[in-house]
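## tool: complex_structure
## caller: assistant
## args:
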Amino acid sequence: MTRSKAGGKIVEARELKKYFIAERGLFFGGKKWVRAVDGVDFHIKRGEIFGLVGESGCGKSTVGKLILGIWKPTAGRVYFDGRGIAEMDGGKLRKLRRRMSIVYQHPYSSFNPRMLVRDIVGRPLKAFEIAKGRRKEELVANALQEVGLNPEHMFRYPHEFSGGQQQRIAVARVLALNPDFVVLDEPTSALDMSVQAHVLNLLSHLQQKYNFTYLFISHDLNVIEHISDRIGVMYVGKLLEVAAKKELYQNPLHPYTKFLLEAVLTPSLKRRRKREILRGEVPSPITPPPGCRFHPRCPYAMDICRRKIPELMDVGGKHQVACHLVGKR
Amino acid sequence: MVEKMAKPLLEVRGLKTYFFTDEGVVKAVDGIDFDISKGEIFGLVGESGCGKSVTALSLLRVIPSPPGKIINGRVMFEGRNLMKISEKEMRHVRGAKISMIFQDPHSSLNPVFRIGDQIAEAIQLHQMTDKKEVPSKVAEALDLVRIPDPEDRMYQYPHQFSGGMKQRAMIAMMLACNPSLLIADEPTTAVDVTIQVQILELLKELRGKQDASIMLITHNLGVIAEVCDRVAVMYAGNIVEQADMAGLFRNPKHPYTHALLGAFPSAEKKRGELTVIPGFVPSLVNPPPGCRFHPRCPYAKPICTEEMPPVVKVNEGHWVRCYLYEGGK
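## result:
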């Protein structure tokens, strides 16, 4: 692999926003918007695993799709290898896409059920005119072998495989293309514990071997802690905290991050300590609260939290947090 | 098997539930024994298809038939064998004495009736109550599960509740009938992590207040560690190990229990080195002879392939079905 080693930013998002129309007014105006992603700044370094964690509906999957250019952002910019992709035209974006890929939570729905595994895994090779015929089949066979499937399985249909195997097929499709950057959107959330372990190990091995960069999206704090180098915490369209894994888990600064970590359940007897339980419900992204998105549930909310949206600020040690409390100290 | 000072609330012996399908007889639950004491939270843990939900449905005799059938077994509950009593008597047990909540509260609630009416129906069906008292009982039940403004919320429809609130409303409905056993089948699998701890806390509280026993079915060992007193590990229709919490997490015996604990992702385990179980969950139409785990077990001996391992007592209240420990090893 001739891939430059760790270091520079491979992906950068600046003031990224994505609004969806929730409800159209009867006449002009009166439109309601879902603010799925509402001003997010972060970057991913080459060769790292960046974990993006948050509860359902916080906008983490939307961020993944914006970064790949699958969706156009409402505002803000995405840079891939220093080049802005939001304003790229089809042809240029296509060239860049060859270097990125995605694995979804439910692999089966990303397969054409009438295609053989050979054609599913080989599809990107064909689409990007990388290989065809014999050569393509060879690459597919190698990819299948690499993810622990029998190369002869390429002549089967996806429904003939178990959930864990289907996820391997999805990973093989990524591998055949051999991209630089992969978005993994809840890749193990639909799998049983023992199958999840298989897939997590596989993803770790491949990342090391090929020096892939991952954006690993998950709601599972145990998985995120296990796999990530750096972690971003999202809540209702906003990034609240970004830090290296160890730093985040040992020294969480945002109250929401603290509550999230309090909610982590582990199979050990360190349990049953009194947990700080977060009350209330996640607000709707259609009518997010003014100021800090978390203030209605935050036990430390001050007056300013209700008025002013806190900015994501550096607090030293490559630790960023968006909270008025932290700025004060 | 399990000596207890007081008689257990529920005593299950030799329970077998088979499904007669075109592909053959699926031995979903194949001879299991366990007890649940009064006021205890008993966990049943295992991966998908191991028979844990079928066990719960069998206790209530609500196995879809055909194709399902309870072949054998004794379920002693409050002095009666639930497998022998008439359907009419059974109807007085369901809901009133043993009630159940499911993973997806959305499909258990009727979308066209108000939440309050649905809870009222449960109260009126199972308890002789003065009609005038019903609304206050409903509000009381919702208040118990911490639904804010219960007097207003009871007049809302399920779609106006969030996922976590719907699950709490389901729990309220169950508890309004004062059951002595609550079966919770993956009650937190469909909710977010911060809501998960809210619901588990609620279950713990209710055990304390109402002195109800809870049978908690889950695939998540973290959930088990958080709330249970005792736990049974299920694999391919059999219980392979049963222990109290200290026994299970400090001194796990069965190779499958070991593997499950090793597969749980955490920061302490190195990336790419989670324990994996080779092979697949066996077909329950043709389960492997002897110990059902032997094809995937790293310690399998010749005898494991021939005969079902005996129950070996490890400690008071801790037993394992495994030849490794036979003869006091």
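## assistant note: The mean pLDDT of chain B is 89. The interface with chain A takes residues 47-48, 162, 164-165, 192-194, 196-198, 201, 219-226, 245-246, 249-250, 259-267, 269, 271-277, 280 of chain B (CB under 8 Å). Handing back to user.
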